[in-house]
Amino acid sequence: MKLLLAEDEVDMSEALVDILTFHKYTVDAVYDGEEAYDYASLGNYDGIILDIMMPKKDGLTVLKELRKEGCQTPILMLTAKSEIEDKVAGLDLGADDYLAKPFSMDELLARLRAMLRRREKSIATELTCGNVSLNQQTFELKVKDEGIILPKLEFQVMEMFMLNQDMYISADNILEKVWGYDTDAEISTVWVYISYLRKKLAQLGADVEIQAKRNIGYRLEKK
Amino acid sequence: MKLLLAEDEVDMSEALVDILTFHKYTVDAVYDGEEAYDYASLGNYDGIILDIMMPKKDGLTVLKELRKEGCQTPILMLTAKSEIEDKVAGLDLGADDYLAKPFSMDELLARLRAMLRRREKSIATELTCGNVSLNQQTFELKVKDEGIILPKLEFQVMEMFMLNQDMYISADNILEKVWGYDTDAEISTVWVYISYLRKKLAQLGADVEIQAKRNIGYRLEKK
DNA sequence: TTTTTTAAGGTATAATTAAGGTTAAATAAT
DNA sequence: ATTATTTAACCTTAATTATACCTTAAAAAA
Questions:
Q1: A63 near A73, Cβ under 8 Å?
Q2: Comparing A81-85, A116-120, B213-217, which segment has the lowest mean pLDDT?
Q3: Fewest C-beta atoms under 10 Å: which of A103, B12, B45, B192?
Q4: Superfamily for A2-120?
Q5: pLDDT at position A196, please?
Q6: CATH homologous superfamily for B2-119?
Q7: pLDDT of amino acid B201
Q8: Angle between helices B33-40 and B59-68 (to 10 degrees)
């Protein structure tokens, strides 16, 4: 789970990053509203924690702008206890939850869990390339109406290709991303998986294939 | 919109009833936990406002019992500002939102609006998939005219499958949702329940079955 | 009793290894 | 400049190993 934390008080921010990281979230920290908006609008976060009082652009404005441009990432607002009108405004502007400072870490974590869980089911992402689609929920690799469900590692490798179209990805890179930077697995394992994916793509009649560029890497290409 | 208000301080309760009524809600007021539970379990409210501190049965217990029985009515918890552990417990027990006293009426109304909006779409009493139906009131699993009443946990697991059709649900996810995120139960317990449900689906002649996908999860599929 | 949990052994599928084959690119020979 | 040789990167299959998942049965709890 990847989170964006927008909080201008450095001490507070660092404490939050520590605790969230400990609880297995990946966290990007930003320190003002403009940064918050820029990062959030990239759209690759699972959740956003947004302080209301921030330099350059306040949290409510960021919230409003993000929602206006169609951003659906769940957002948890933070603010000082007294600003009750902000709470009302925030909830009506489309914030998913609200937390008054000071708060306990347990409560923050509980609210985060609840918030992320609520949105979990309503995101059905599907990557496509040529006549091939890859469903990130069901791990289904599909061409036209025929599809098969990929095993976990095959899915992760395929996902890398779909997410980095027209980029060459080295086998080493795949090994590090999918198997982890400290894996014991050998590079040939990646070759095996490439081979499996090729077979399945061909079997489904895909109009793309995994091409190797010697000494450089692999990428998906139109046939 | 019909609301249940469980709040033991009479002055507070009457004030809330007035304001909610003014805002076009229909409100039933009760003054202790047992009444709250009895009324709420009728299942004909659009939302419940539940004070934690109440005579006879406290709000958290009421919440827990309601959720355990499959009640899905959105619930907003109220409590005195300091009881932070209650907030955490409440959110994890399935409360939809939380409000600390004292609060402004505006905030209450905003939170109510947000909460009711979230649940608006999901009001159905009988779920179906293929020739199988699951009654959320009676816990009856039925194929054609033959049916059996499921035990509570089997029902909750089955309900997850019915509510998330064509989505894979991991055993961990089921464990967290049905048994609670802090349960001591082991993952194998989920396997046992899946096994029971499969047997019952087969016995009834269902045209759907619970399919497992290694490392991904389970889902209902047409045979 | 009925429901829930634990325990244990079995099965199927996914992940990895091993081994032999193929091919692209670099270099050397013509 | 062309061809041959070599090398290492890449490919594939098949066999092995690991482990997620299943089921049953019995014990415990409600």
A1: no
A2: A81-85
A3: B192
A4: Response regulator (3.40.50.2300)
A5: 95
A6: Response regulator (3.40.50.2300)
A7: 96
A8: 20
- The pair of structure tokens assigned to A154 is 């095959």
Only one residue has tokens 């930003």, namely: A30
Q: Which of A110, A118, A151 sits opposite B214 (nearest CB)?
A: A151
Do the beta carbons of residue B69 and residue B137 sit within 8 Å?
no
For chain B, domain boundaries: 2-119, 126-222
Restricting to B residues 113-132, those with a Cβ less than 8 Å away from any Cβ of A are 113-114, 118
CA distance B60 to B33: 9
Give the C-alpha distances (Å, rounded to integers) separating B222 from A134, A137, B173, B211.
21, 18, 22, 9
The overall pTM is greater than 0.85:
no
Distance from the Cα of residue B116 to its chain's centroid: 14
How many CB atoms sit inside 10 A of residue A56's CB?
14
Look up residue B167 and give its amino acid: M
| Residues of chain A contacting B216 with CB distance shorter than 8 Å | 138-139, 149, 152
- Our CA-based measurement puts residue A123 at a distance from the nearest CA of chain B, in whole angstroms, of 11
Q: What is the pLDDT of residues B183-193, one digit of tens each?
A: 888 999 999 99
**Is it the case that residue A101 has pLDDT exceeding 50?**
yes
What spatial distance separates the first Cα and last Cα of chain B, rounded to whole Å? 41
Sort strands A97-101 and A126-129 into parallel, antiparallel or unpaired: unpaired
Q: How far is the CA of B212 from the C1' of D23 (A)?
A: 14
Strand pairing report for B140-143 and B132-135: antiparallel
How is B31-89 classified by DSSP, letter by letter?
-SHHHHHHHHTT---SEEEEESS-SSS-HHHHHHHHHHTT----EEEEEETT-HHHHHH
Tell me if B84 sits within 8 A of B52, measured CB to CB: no
Q: Does B215 touch chain A (CB under 8 A)?
A: yes
Higher pLDDT, A99 or A151: A151
Which residue, among A1, A105, A110, A11, has the nearest Cα to A48 in the 3D structure?
A1
Q: Could you tell me the two tokens for A92?
A: 């009506």
Is residue B30 within 8 Å of B5, Cβ to Cβ? Answer: yes
Position B122 scores a pLDDT of: 45
Confidence of residue A122 (pLDDT cuts 50, 70, 90): very low
Q: Is A24 on the interface with B (CB under 8 A)?
A: no
The CATH number, out of the four listed (3.40.1180.10, 1.20.1250.20, 1.10.10.10, 2.40.30.10), of the domain defined by the range B126-222: 1.10.10.10
